[in-house]
Amino acid sequence: MRSDFGTTAKGDHAALYTMKNENGMEIAVSDYGAILVKVLVPGRDGILRDVVLGYDDVSGYECGTLYFGATVGRVANRIKGGAFELNGNTYTLTKNDNQNTLHGGTDYYDKRMWKVEEADDSHVSLALHSADGDQGFPGEVDIRVTYTLTDNNEVKIRYHAVPVEDTLLNLTNHSYFNLSGHNSGTVLDQEVMICADAFTRADEESIPTGELLLVEGTPMDFRSGKPIGREIHADYEAIKFGLGYDHNWALNGSGYRQAASMYSGQSGIEMKVYTDLPGMQFYTGNFIEQEKGKEGAVYRKRQGVCFESQYFPDAVHKEQFEGPVVRAQEAYDTTTVYQFQLK
Ligand code: BGC
User: Fold this and answer.
1) Which is it for the CA torsion 157, 134, 70, 114, positive or negative?
2) Pocket around ligand 1: residues whose beta carbon is below 6 Å from it?
3) pTM over 0.90, yes/no
């Protein structure tokens, strides 16, 4: 179902595409920013809860700076020094996070109108043409993001692109989840499990040093699952630098596999995260401050958490990290799934 989502400052009419499944789940995606706006999941009491943070209409997303539900590209996370070399040429990006580039630089993909190519009750495909030189990156590329809601309660996000020239691609979704409901306070008592024996050590500016550190015996160990808040104030370098959790975990295994899970004892809702990518940024909303959101909600620090599947941050400067170079005419094709059930 297509509905009106408001008009942008430039005068573009934004639309919201709503999908429903046979279990009563519902999601909504906007053609502004290819943003995941709503994820409604029935709790154990049968009541539908919206489990992602967001805004009521397009103007909220235009003004917002926290990437609620956003499709992030061309390269999610950080590139040190806002520059990189590819095939002997140096490319310069905008610096929007200290001296580094975060989430593509200031001309964000989630602040543009995307073109809807297909839409029905279970999926929507959105396309973005990114020109040669867009955000400073080389090579023209047509990007397609498809959101599908399955009857297995999966929100499946597939990213597909074939660049004309060699370039970098690392697309992700920046939804903030709160499984008790977007307007229910912090997520600190909700449980998270991350399928990773190691994470990428980073400096004060969240730039990886290139080392992998084992999570064993540290507050970064989520392998058996624990409440998010249990060690979030620990006296540990990574936690101090990140002001909480804001790190890339090196996921165990390869190929499409489970990356993480999250659970709210209050609603009974469990979410499992699956991806075919090597890394995942687990970010605990450390920078949310009094943000006016959907349905009159005011979001605060740690009211939602992100599971951003990705190539490791700053991989372009680290030979030992895979990606994110995609060669001309080669397909970039990756899928991340957020699946919901009652536990
Ligand atoms: C980054 C955080 C940043 C946030 C913005 C995350 O992907 O890792 O450092 O503040 O995005 O909402």
Assistant:
1) negative
2) 66-67, 77, 206, 246, 281, 283, 287, 308
3) yes
